[in-house]
Design goal:
single chain, 498 residues, mainly beta, Rubrerythrin, domain 2, 3 domains, eight-stranded antiparallel β-barrel, 3 helices, 6% helix, globular, disordered N terminus, disordered C terminus, membrane
Length: 498
């Protein structure tokens, strides 16, 4: 049986240092010398040095150049031959160039443990300019309907290996992302000419059958970075390389890390202290793996035309292979949610949304604000940060959605309700299960070691008092802490750009 012959690799000495530079793909025009970091461009059989590439930052990725894998479904083999590290308004992300066996290429986008596999796509004619693609606008592309989820400025920070094209180092260029209700992602990179269009879906890392990953010894442990708090001078340890903000464990000041630890650090003091029910650093078991609590924030919301605020709390959980998820504590129960790769089909002003074939009903629309922060976050969170939010509940009762809009991006999140006892047991806090109970809780007697009859009687008395007070109010529908699905925070969606 005839076998496909491998594509011929091209090798030539680096114009900067003389070391060998290899081009495996015929589509690659650029490469970065692994020895002197020279950026070289190939013209026929000649290499020309066009500059020097910046050093890569350690993003703790399990991926590395020359790792191999197989595409889900087709099983076609590929090799990672290039990497670009990019920066946007809300954070950094990485794009890996994958060379397929038949010479075609694909892109594996990586951000905080979320991955999207994309292939080159066709836009009939030419994509409209970015200023004609506002957030939320819908477009018919290749038989599908997509909505604009992000319209931002990005810039190249660093690169390695070989790549078909490179935007100028450090110069901003527009990136527009569109998403569909069946989970597809379409990305338009205006840093290339003509603009590069790619289309794909999110993928789990294990589905790629990867080999040649960085082993445990090669990947630097989260030993952290340390500096002195700019407010009180106490030592501050940053555990995650992706963190864009953190809090001082001594004075609780919120510290901005977006300009790096070598720059002058800015901070905001937080006078009040809110103690999380689940301590930072705790390990919890969800979805069969261990997650660590790395961040906590308290947020409040207010519906348009109402002066009553409600509140909820969010725990940011981290797993090295799976990235980040949010554990949300609201008065109507606990939820485990994560940003979606696609965007539900929904028009502003309507009451229903559709995502992955399931219908959701709008339950609330409100303005959200962050009031207190502790720990580390992969986006630059700050006190007073505001967004426009909408919450949805599945018509069949299976699942919840949340839409959060900030300047430049719309983030959708999807998740499921979790029983309060399950949450307590996940963190081995079953002896404190009563503190986790919310409106979703069952009868008191269902929890071993729960409160006694005296507590039940006191609770009933308090309930009568509260209902009496509410009946005397002027008809306001909410209290200071009401039932809500919450907002899942975060400004990343694991899509093409991040």
């Amino acid at each position: 049986m005839a076998t496909r012959s491998p594509q011929r690799a091209y090798r030539a000495p680096c114009p900067g240092c003389g070391a060998e530079v290899e081009f495996r793909s015929a589509q690659s025009a650029y490469a970065v010398c692994p020895y002197c970091q020279s950026t070289v461009v190939r013209s026929g059989e000649v290499l020309q040095r066009v500059g020097r590439m910046a050093e890569l930052f350690d993003d703790h990725s399990p991926l590395q150049l020359h790792a191999t894998g197989r595409l889900p479904g087709s099983g076609e083999a590929f090799t990672l031959i290039g990497r670009m590290q990019l920066q946007g308004e809300q954070g950094r992300w990485t794009q890996w160039l994958a060379l397929l066996d038949d010479g075609r290429s694909a892109t594996l986008s990586e951000d905080n443990g979320a991955y999207v596999l994309m292939h080159p796509a066709h836009w009939q004619g030419a994509p409209p300019p970015p200023d004609r693609m506002p957030l939320g606008s819908t477009w018919k592309i290749g038989g599908g309907t997509f909505s604009v989820a992000a319209n931002l400025q990005a810039q190249l920070l660093a690169a390695e290996g070989e790549l078909p094209a490179l935007p100028p180092l450090g110069e901003p260029f527009p990136v527009v992302e569109l998403r569909s209700s069946d989970g597809e992602v379409l990305s338009i990179d205006f840093g290339a000419q003509p603009p590069e269009v790619q289309r794909g879906r999110s993928v789990e890392l294990h589905a790629l059958q990867l080999k040649g990953l960085r082993d445990g010894e090669a990947v630097r442990e989260e030993a952290g970075r340390q500096f002195d708090c700019p407010h009180c001078g106490a030592p501050v340890q940053v555990q995650l390389d992706a963190s864009k903000s953190c809090t001082c464990p001594s004075c609780r000041s919120l510290i901005d890390l977006t300009r790096g630890l070598g720059a002058e650090l800015s901070y905001v003091t937080q006078q009040e202290t809110i103690r999380p029910l689940i301590p930072l650093g705790s390990i919890g078991q969800f979805e069969g793996v261990s997650w660590q609590v790395v961040g906590f924030q308290h947020r409040t919301g207010v519906e348009p035309g109402d002066d009553e605020h409600f509140g909820w709390e969010e725990y940011l959980l981290y797993h090295r292979q799976r990235g980040f998820v949010f554990l949300v504590d609201a008065s109507d129960g606990w939820s485990l949610v994560r940003p979606t790769s696609g965007a539900p089909a929904w028009r502003e002003g309507t009451q229903t949304a559709t995502y992955l074939g399931r219908r959701y009903r709008l339950t609330s629309t409100y303005l959200a604000e962050t009031n207190y922060v502790a720990g580390e976050f992969y986006w630059p969170v700050y006190r007073g940060q505001k967004s426009s939010n909408s919450d949805f509940a599945a018509v069949d009762g299976k699942g919840i959605l949340s839409r959060e809009q900030t300047p430049g991006e719309v983030t959708w999140s999807h998740g499921q309700r979790i029983d309060s006892l399950v949450v307590a047991q996940a963190f081995k806090l079953g002896d404190r299960a009563g503190l986790f109970r919310r409106q979703d809780a069952g009868p008191v007697g269902a929890i071993t070691g729960g409160p006694g009859w005296a507590t039940m009687v006191l609770t009933l008395v308090l309930l009568v008092v509260v209902l009496s007070l509410m009946s005397n109010c002027s008809g306001s529908p909410g209290g200071s802490y009401r039932s809500t699905g919450g907002s899942w925070g975060g400004y990343t969606s694991g899509g093409g750009h991040k």
